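Slide 14.
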Amino acid sequence: MERLMSAPRILQTTVGSLLLLSPLFATAETQTSTDTQTSAEKTATVELDSVKVQGDDTPLAEISTDKLLRVPGSGNDPLRAIESLPGVVFSSGRRSEPAVRGSSPEDNAYIIDFLPVGYIFHQDGSSILNDNVVKDFKLEAAAFGPEYNNATGAVIDADSRLPYQDRDQTIIDFSLLKAGIFVENQVTDNQAFYFSARQSLFQYYIENFLDDEDFKFTQVPEFYDYQGKYTWRISNNENLTFQVIGAQDKGGILFDEDSDEVLQDPGLKGGLRYKAFFNTQGLVWDKLYDSGLTHKIGFSQLEEKFGFGIGQENRIDVKVNSYHLRSQFSYPINFDHELQWGLQLKEAHIGYNGQFNAPACDEFDPDCRIVDGSETIKGKGKPIVTTWYASVADVWSVTPTWTLTPGVLVSSDDYTKQDFTEPKLNSRWEFRENWAFTSGYGQYHILPDNFGSYTPEFGNRNLKQPTADHYEIGIENELADDLLWKVEAYYKNLDDIIIARPDPDFYGYDLSKEADKAAYNALPRYTNDADGTAWGMEFFINKNLTDKWYGWLSAAYSRTERKDQLTNKEFRYNYDQPVIINMVANYQYNKHWQIGFKWRYQSGQLITPLLRAEQDKNDPKLYNPVYGETNSQRLPAYHKLDVRADRTFVFKTWEMDFYAEILNLYGRSNVVDYEYEGADYSNREEVTDLPTIVSFGIKAKL
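Slide 15: predicted structure.
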């Protein structure tokens, strides 16, 4: 979502923490079921840039969506299940979006059914897609082609299936945390539709688990989403589809006057409030011509609203209406060349209105208290940003065993007034039977959704767009019909990263002096004075053990760094987790039951250590924390085991799917952060992730 400004860290962590206030609430991502697809749908695959994981009747280099739906702990949500794949980190800092191969979650692009959306993950980490219609998705982790744009991290491109033409069905989902209804009907011989709507249920009882907390809800956390598609099959080679999708997340808390949060940051009096909403409607026309030409053309309208408040005086409200035209064409020139090209236009009308007395902050700053604000900023505006992208690529079969795909993306926008010409190159060489060598390169840029840092009042009107160079190289070998392994290495170079201005002490300013205060406030709040690198190596092995078994193992080693050019400080990035191991297996116990497990190990989260707290010179009740080097301490390693069992019950006129899961089976107390008590930060307590939790879900297919 194009948010107006970067929320201080207390908003990012505390509002996200609303979703982890009770063990039952935190299992929201495990509360739906699966198996609504036909066997043809189940062979749909998830194509991964770094690795592809497999389905029953598909090559070993691919993974069926059905298998990702059954990954323990993912709650039948394949987008959440990408955590079990190499290079993906969902931070234990309670962010709902993934960081991929050393890039920030804000560096990703999200597409559903060829068109952009406001956001793709709810605050509890589950995706907005209904598992009844998920067909497949691509995780483009690095060096992706020119058909994708406005991303320096990764691209998640999800597709939902077309409505069935041969059946009507109604599906009812119900669990402790979520309820939903899905309706699908044939309208004519060549027209059909489906529509789903879901809402959270935890808002009705979560307060029962908060007896000892030092805050209360002003808005109990909750979410809603809906998704619909109406398709006219004009012919076997032509479809016209109208689609809608939308979601809403909101929450709010008010801290007690004597709470640790208010004692440490009096600016939090008045609490926190948060609301995000989007809806989009789009029309997509796809066709295959007799000549071999194919095209997909989509037009959509996207409405987004975002609002938050911090304390009594800090608030921001944003509304964005954007209009998108996207097209992609493909034409086989001859046996050796397939030309691919596309054009995308976007016009965004961004309206914002707000007031803030808070310091400029970025994701690297451990101390971003509202009370440290040095000026009150008020602003409103309605900029219109127009952007266009044009891409072309040639899928060139150099030899029968070597495919080379050069491409280029050309783009421009009228706000930053920057023009980009970015080359891309991908290669796959099968140098011997069952062996392949892959490589990729690309240049990328992004105009962040967090548009607030680009506004003249709250940020810096002269900011440039961050850029990145991606390199990757890999080798894969299909050892047998049921065994494949792959190793891939990558390197990313990141430039023009946006950071907040340093603290006044860095410049030698004393904010108690009006001249120093004026000089400091005149500095740009945000600049492009940071860069970074990310490199790593990933190993993946996929094995079909028997007809009843499938599973995969992934292991990754990486290093991610950032450098603040203003302060000349170099440090590990927040999402730097050098070692990540995933093991996933599923066993068909009999014709009724499936059982599976997932074990994950990852290096501990990086934190900036608190060294001490010093009494404020002007306010003896206030203590100012003194931190050590940025991200210089690592928490203990994180690991857990999740298990799951599935069964389908078949009755005369309906079916019921049932599953049960045990999360964190061996009860590992994973430390994900530290909290400090009192105004003087005198006592440190460990914040741990979920204990052992048993959950279950049912789904009735009528």
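Speaker note: Residues 9-17 form the longest helix (9 residues).
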